[in-house]
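Quick one:
INPUT:
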């Protein structure tokens, strides 16, 4: 009898553990890039507590048991999962704030994200650190995307920068407008605006800026490699740890928290561009310290 009782106790305990494991299961949807998926999955697994299990959606799977939460990697992955799982909680990674906000607003607690883009305020702080004497900053925007820059227009005077937005009405108008912008600003602040900054325009923008002895700050790490002088970026590990915190909040409360930016950033620098323009650069560590201090201030004021 004692042996039977021990077996039953062990069985029930195993059943409870299995049930808890099922309750705390999170599914992760592929971006279509196996190396990226594997890297992000491993980072997220390392950040999650033991009572949350991460499982991949495989072989085109889109449905999840009991509408378990789904982590998506990239905008295409999010769009696919959202259409197939109207009730499932979704945490989007590697998506920009402008992409996900229209989904979040009508679905609070169900859809959230760790933003991929860097707040323009922080990008401008990098520009100010690189060019301490700068007092004016130029911004290019299309008529469709000018609203993206509204928040930063009120923030930059607080750090000694007077921003001005130059509207690009058409692709033919891009370079003439850029020339006017460069005659105003000490540097060009580039946002995550695909209508302005994309593979077909970036070469012309960078060459025009370079020839006028000006620099581009932003919009992302990849554009620094193309010729921007510097940009902030969030390391994947920071995005994963922030996402883990959101998932822990979900299992504790039953709702996903609001989207957030990652909890730390790094700075990518193009030293060759700086040398060509005879710009002395602060050390990378100094820039990242300034960026961290700016991020803390940014969060304190709730921007």
């Amino acid at each position: 009898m004692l042996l039977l009782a021990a077996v039953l106790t062990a069985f029930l305990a195993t059943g409870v553990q299995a049930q808890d494991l099922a309750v705390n299961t999170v599914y992760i949807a592929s971006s279509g890039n196996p190396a990226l998926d594997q890297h992000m999955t491993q980072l997220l697994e390392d950040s999650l507590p033991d009572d949350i299990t991460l499982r991949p959606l495989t072989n085109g799977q889109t449905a999840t048991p009991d509408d378990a939460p789904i982590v998506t990697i990239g905008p295409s992955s999010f769009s696919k999962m959202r259409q197939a799982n109207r009730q499932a909680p979704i945490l989007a990674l590697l998506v920009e704030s402008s992409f996900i906000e229209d989904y979040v607003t009508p679905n609070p607690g169900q859809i959230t994200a760790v933003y991929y883009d860097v707040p323009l305020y922080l990008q401008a702080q990098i520009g100010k650190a690189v060019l301490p004497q700068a007092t004016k900053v130029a911004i290019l925007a299309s008529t469709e995307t000018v609203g993206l820059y509204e928040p930063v227009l009120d923030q930059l005077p607080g750090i000694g920068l007077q921003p001005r937005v130059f509207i690009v009405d058409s692709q033919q108008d891009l370079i003439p407008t850029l020339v006017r912008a460069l005659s105003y600003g000490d540097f060009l602040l580039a946002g995550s605006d695909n209508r302005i900054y994309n593979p077909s325009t970036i070469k012309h923008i960078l060459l025009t800026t370079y020839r006028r002895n000006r620099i581009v700050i932003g919009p992302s790490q990849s554009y620094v490699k193309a010729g921007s002088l510097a940009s902030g970026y969030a390391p994947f590990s920071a995005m994963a740890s922030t996402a883990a915190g959101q998932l822990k909040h979900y299992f504790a409360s039953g709702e996903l928290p609001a989207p957030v930016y990652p909890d730390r950033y790094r700075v990518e620098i193009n030293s060759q561009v700086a040398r060509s323009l005879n710009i002395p650069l602060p050390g990378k560590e100094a820039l990242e310290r300034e960026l961290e201090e700016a991020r803390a201030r940014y969060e304190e004021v709730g921007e």
